[in-house]
Predict the 3D structure of the following.
Amino acid sequence: MSNVWLVARREIAVRGRTKGFLIGLLVSALLVVALAFIPKLLGGNDSYTVGVVGAGSAGFETAVKPLAEAEQAEVAFRKLPDEAAARAALADGDLDAAVLDGTKLLADGEVSQQLGLFLQSAHRALQTEERLRAAGLDPGKVTEAMRVPPLTEVSVSTVAGDAGVRAGIATLIVLVLFFLLISSVTSVAMGVVEEKGSRIVELLLTSIRPWQLLGGKIIGLGALGLVNLLVVIVAGLGASLVTGLATDLPPGITGIAISAVIWFLLGYAFFSAMAAAFGALVSRQEDVSSVLTPMTTLLMATYLVAFYAVTDPSGSVARTLSLIPPFSSMVMPVRMAVGEVQLWEIALAGGLMIVAVVLVLLAGARIYQRAVLRTGARVRLSDVMR
Amino acid sequence: MLEAQALHKRYGDTEALRGVSLTVRPGEMFGFVGANGAGKTTTMRIVMGVLEADSGELSWQGQPLTYETRRGFGYMPEERGLYQKMKVAEQVDYFGRLHGMSRPAAKSATDELVERLGLTERRDDTVDSLSLGNQQRVQLAVALVHRPTVLILDEPFSGLDPIAVDALAEALAERCAAGVPVIFSSHQLELVDRLCDSVGIISAGRMVAGGPVEEVRAREGRRLLKVVVRDATPGWADGLPGEVSTENGRHVLLAPDGDDQAILRAAVQAGTVEHFGWQQPTLTEIFREAVA
């Protein structure tokens, strides 16, 4: 076992300091941070400044405040002397909107949907109140009557939080898992071919067993993939805390992240064993991508199915494939992020995936062991399977 | 003692080895010579367990070779293999650890070898930045780091400059003196002649000659009597065995056999004898004859 550890440590030390790995780490972290900022940039802006002109606009501030608070938005009001000043401030972009004498709403173009809703609701409430008073009703009773509690939102399933946000997180999980899987798994294959092509494997296999070399390589490169995944998760969660997006994240996001990590490890074990077996068949780096085609096709199919599952997480296709390895490695975390999944489904999917991983590891180690010392022309799979 | 008995190996239709046997005693340096494709590399790979023989026996100290025994061997494959992106000392140390050395033992062995092989200044450079000669030194360090019980080196001298050859030869002689059997293959027969205690000549998968160098020489080689005569009377050697050629106005007689005293008398009568003596055949000559 200490040999496995030695090999793993070498992979981590050598691969971990290459430019490729460090750049990948940085780029993936930056991409996720950028994703967390996008809602804020795309009109996800939820702090507004509204200009108020004329006496009739006085009640707006008190009327808008509870509305804005309910949506976690901020609306600031600024008093302006006249319409000309309001127009100038709008044109300069200092204001998002201006209310004129309680009758007109000025904006540079169209008022943002959310702010428009706040202002129109406030306006309606104010006008209603005024008209009821004008009709001779007791002002105190009018105020009392106007104080309507908002509808309480109740989810009918255990799923809580915005469905859109959940779908977004699921999409992100699919993307991150796919790119991390394909890059980690390809480096396993490249590493195998590097050792085979340079014949260093001859030297290595006179001091350690093939399974130790293979196991160490898979563990070492997997650890680096895991580090990358954790960096992505920490960067994503950190950035969403900074941007305030975190308040929109559904409860149980920690669970979603943990399950993504576990499914990444299972998927990685499955695909990396395949990659090592296929990689061992060739001796030149140029042949790696062609020999890996069956594996990359399977991984691509898993990716596409998982994408489809984001759009229809409770459909029978997603439900079925979330149980079948290796599709489950990406479909199941998507389903867990988007909606409700029964515990037995998770247990069954996990169990089947672990069985598949063990089988692929055994077959992969066998093929690797038989093919890795046969340098020269590409080894046929049928020759080493017998 | 390392022994291989009747190794056979077939690749498809080609019979690479047809009963190769060899014996190397502790402290013996064994030179393995043969033409390209004769079976040297195949034999060495089989001894190292990288390749499996179709039949034949391998033993070390009288016990069949196992994976564990081989772990103690040092090996330099024909196709050099190093991690190009790994630093020199880091790499040597790594192989020491893989052979089961403890961390401090691997470290001190690495430091010693790096120094001995003149790589101190390059110890923190990656292998791909080294010259070919220096890469070869690293390769040797990797083979030596765990203080191997047996050394098996495939063409260790190829591509080295004379100074590097001397350094390598010295390192091997030192291991040999410590009682380690050393097997190496080479095309440089003078080198084998100079360094080795015993040789094995392999041709088309068969050992055609082998044993201690002197015995092989006595058994396989034809010694030649060489006589150099100045101002010789033409035709003096007619009737004597051998052939006469002319070099710088001197007659040179090379005789494979015969009565040396009679030849000497004839030479003295013919002119001034500048040289008279038996010549040992070189390994190259033996090799040419053996594989012919």
